[in-house]
Design goal:
This protein has 616 residues and is an alpha/beta fold. It has 20 helices and 23 strands. Helix 2 packs parallel to helix 3.
Length: 616
C-alpha cells in the first residue's frame, strides 16, 4: 500500500474532494484545515507527501513548507493555489516543492503530480532501506570477523585484551573492564581500559551470591550508577561461567538494543575462546614438564614470567618470585647415590606442588635449584610461603626418608615485583642475595631449626660468660649483652608510629611480657590506629587491665613463669624484621636483638607452635 498523504486546506470542499479522489487510488489520506494542525500531525506520523494550499489564515503554505523542510529536507510537497503566479515563482523554486497546481485543478493533473511525487518518495525509501541493509550487513560482517578472531587466537593474554576492546567497539563504550574465572572459580580482574579508576574495580568477585542468577541467565543486563549507564555482559560457554565484562560511558549517551544484542553474540564467542585458551594452556603445561619431577622447564617459566611482568606493569599489579636450592645435593649424590638424590628432588617438588595454587608455576632451573612464580602475591605473602614451603618439605615422606641418613640443606629466597626489580634477571638476582643472607644467617650457623622456642631464647640470650655470637659480613647484625632499661618501651613507641604511618603494610608483631596492661606504649600508640590495619598484632602475658583493643589481640598466659621472666618483641613485615628478647635482673637488663630475617621468622614460627597461635 502506498504511503500516507497529508492534505492541508482551509477549504472544506477541496479537502473532501482531494480525500475522496486519492482514497479511490489506494492512498491513505489525513486532511486538516490549517498549518498548525498539519504540524501536529507531522509530529505524530511520517507522510510521503504533503498537499497544501498556499493562502490560509495564520501560517500560509510557503511557511508550512519551510517548516516541513526543516524537519525533513526531502519531504515531498505539492502547493495548491487559486493564484496562477505561484507556479514557477521564486519562493516555490527556493523551497524546492515537487509541483504547483492552480485551482480549479483537473483530476488528471492532480493524480499525475501525486503519482510523480509518490514515486520519488518510494525511491527514496528504497534507497534508504538499501543503505540500512548495507550498513547492517557491514556491521554484522564486522561482528562476524571479530568473533572468528576470538576463536582463532587461543592465547589468553591476547584474548583478555581483545575481548574488552571488541566489546567496547561494538557497543560504542569508552570504558570497559573484564573479569575472567580463575583456577579457584572466582572472577579475577584481568583487563580494563578507558575512564575507569582501578581502585573502584574489585580485584575478585564470587560468581555465587547476588551474581549467580544473572550469570546463569547468560544475558547482558543494564544498570546505572551516578556517572554513566553500565552494561554487564556475562561470558558463558555451555553453561560454564568464563567471565564478566563491564561496559560504561557510551558515546551515544545510553546503550541501545542493538548494543545488547551484539554484545551477547560477541560474548558467546569470547567465552568459547577463553575456555579453549585455558584448555590449551593446560596442555602446554603438560608438554613442558620435566620428566623426573613434573616441574616446568626453564624456557616455559621465563616466558610465563615475562607475561606476568607485562600484566603487572600494565595493570599495576604485584607478584613474587621464589628460588629454592638444595645446597648439599652433590653431597647427597656422592654419599647416598643418584637414586636417593632424585628421590629427594622429587619429594621437594611434590611437597611444593601440594601447597601452591593452580595459578602458581614451579620450574626446574637446574638439578638443585627451583623457581616458583606466585601471581598476586606481595613480599610478606612470599615470606610466609617460604616458611610453609620449608615446613611442607620436612613433612614429605620421601624427604624424611633421605634426611634420616643425611639432612638436606634447603634454602629459599623471595623477591617481589616491582619492589625488588622490574625484570626477570633483577628478581632472580634479588632472590639469590636473600638466599645468601639465609646461608650466612645465625639461624643456620647455630643450627637453631630443631630447637623449641624457649630453648632457642635461652641459647640466644646466653650469659655474660657465654662466647660471642658468630658473625658473617653477609648476614644482618645480631647482638647480645646489656641493654638499656627503656629500650623495650621505646621500641614499642617507634613500631606503633610506623604502623600508623603505613596501615596497609602487612606484617606480624608479637609483644610479650609479664603483664598485659592498657598503658603499654604499644597499646597507647595504637589507640588512634585505623580500623583496617593490615598487620596482625598480639600481646602475650598475664591479664591485668587490658580487656579489648581495636588493633590488638591479647593472648592471656596465666602462670607461665617463662613469659613472666622475659620481655620480647618479634616483628616481621614487608619492610622490616626485628627481634628483641630481654631478661631483667637486679643489676642490669640482659638482652639479645637482631635484624636477621631468618632468626626473626624462626622465632615467630616457634612461638606460634609453642602457644598454638594461628599462623598468618
Amino acid at each position: 500500500m502506498a504511503g500516507p498523504i497529508l492534505v492541508v486546506d482551509d477549504d472544506l470542499f477541496f479537502r473532501n474532494l482531494a480525500t475522496d479522489l486519492l482514497s479511490r487510488r489506494g492512498h491513505r489520506v489525513v486532511a486538516v484545515e490549517n498549518a498548525t494542525l498539519a504540524l501536529e500531525e507531522v509530529s505524530r506520523a511520517t507522510f510521503d507527501l504533503v498537499l497544501t494550499d498556499v493562502v490560509m489564515p495564520g501560517v500560509d503554505g510557503f511557511a508550512l513548507t519551510a517548516r516541513l523542510r526543516e524537519r525533513d529536507p526531502e519531504q515531498e510537497v505539492i502547493l495548491v493555489s487559486t493564484r496562477d503566479d505561484v507556479q514557477g515563482s521564486e519562493v516555490a523554486l527556493r523551497l524546492g516543492v515537487a509541483d504547483c497546481l492552480t485551482k480549479p485543478i483537473e483530476e488528471s493533473d492532480l493524480l499525475l503530480a501525486v503519482d510523480r511525487a509518490m514515486e520519488r518518495a518510494q525511491l527514496r525509501h528504497e534507497r534508504a532501506r538499501l543503505q540500512d541493509e548495507n550498513l547492517e550487513f557491514a556491521r554484522f560482517h564486522n561482528l562476524q570477523q571479530r568473533c572468528l578472531e576470538l576463536l582463532s587466537h587461543p592465547d589468553l593474554e591476547w584474548l583478555q585484551e581483545r575481548v574488552i576492546a571488541d566489546l567496547g567497539a561494538v557497543c560504542d563504550a569508552q570504558s570497559a573492564a573484564l573479569w575472567v574465572v580463575d583456577d579457584r572459580g572466582d572472577l579475577a580482574l584481568r583487563s580494563y581500559r578507558g575512564l575507569l579508576d582501578k581502585q573502584f574495580l574489585p580485584e575478585k568477585m564470587s560468581p555465587e551470591g547476588p551474581l549467580s542468577l544473572r550469570l546463569r541467565e547468560a544475558a547482558p543486563w543494564l544498570a546505572r550508577d551516578e556517572r554513566s549507564p553500565v552494561l554487564y555482559v556475562p561470558l558463558v560457554a555451555t553453561g560454564e561461567v568464563m567471565g564478566l565484562a563491564q561496559l560504561s560511558d557510551p558515546l551515544t549517551g545510553d546503550f541501545r538494543l542493538e548494543h545488547t544484542r551484539d554484545a551477547k553474540v560477541l560474548a558467546d564467542f569470547a567465552a568459547v575462546g577463553v575456555k579453549n585458551g585455558r584448555k590449551l594452556m593446560a596442555l602446554q603445561r603438560l608438554g613442558l614438564r620435566d620428566r623426573d619431577t613434573a616441574a616446568y622447564n626453564l624456557s616455559y617459566f621465563t616466558d610465563y614470567a615475562s607475561k606476568e611482568i607485562y600484566k603487572a606493569r600494565r595493570y599495576g599489579r604485584t607478584f613474587s618470585l621464589l628460588t629454592f636450592s638444595i645446597d648439599n645435593l652433590p653431597l647427597v649424590r656422592v654419599r647416598l647415590g643418584a637414586q636417593d638424590a632424585k628421590k629427594a628432588v622429587r619429594g621437594i617438588i611434590k611437597a611444593l606442588s601440594k601447597i601452591i595454587r593452580d595459578s602458581d608455576v614451579i620450574a626446574k632451573a637446574s638439578d638443585q635449584e627451583f623457581y616458583l612464580l606466585l601471581p598476586e602475591t606481595d613480599f610478606f605473602g612470599a615470606m610466609m610461603f617460604v616458611r610453609r614451603a620449608v615446613a611442607a618439605v620436612r613433612d614429605e615422606p620421601d624427604v624424611q626418608d633421605v634426611e634420616q641418613r643425611l639432612p638436606l640443606a634447603l634454602v629459599g629466597g623471595a623477591s617481589t615485583f616491582p619492589k625488588d626489580g622490574e625484570d626477570f634477571d633483577e628478581l632472580v638476582h634479588r632472590c639469590r642475595r636473600r638466599m645468601d643472607e639465609r646461608r650466612a644467617s645465625l639461624q643456620r650457623r647455630l643450627m637453631l631449626d630443631g630447637l623449641p622456642f624457649w630453648d632457642e631464647v635461652d641459647l640466644l640470650l646466653g650469659t655474660p660468660n657465654s662466647p660471642r655470637l658468630p658473625t658473617d659480613d653477609r648476614a644482618e647484625p645480631s647482638r647480645r649483652g646489656k641493654v638499656a632499661d627503656v629500650l623495650f618501651d621505646e621500641l614499642q613507641v617507634e613500631i606503633a608510629r610506623e604502623l600508623v604511618r603505613d596501615p596497609g603494610s602487612r606484617g606480624l608483631l608479637y609483644v610479650g611480657g609479664p603483664e598485659i596492661r592498657a598503658d603499654l606504649p604499644l597499646a597507647v600508640g595504637l589507640e588512634q590506629a585505623p580500623p583496617d590495619l593490615s598487620s596482625r598484632i598480639y600481646l602475650l602475658g598475664r591479664r591485668v587491665d587490658l580487656e579489648s583493643h581495636a588493633a590488638l589481640t591479647p593472648v592471656f598466659l596465666e602462670g607461665d613463669e617463662r613469659v613472666a621472666r622475659h620481655e620480647f618483641i618479634l616483628w616481621l613485615s614487608e619492610s622490616a624484621s626485628y627481634a628483641l628478647i630481654q631478661r631483667r635482673g637486679r643489676g642490669a637488663t640482659w638482652g639479645f636483638h637482631t635484624s636477621d630475617t631468618a632468626v626473626v621468622d624462626g622465632l615467630i614460627s616457634k612461638l606460634q607452635a609453642e602457644y598454638d597461635l594461628q599462623p598468618y
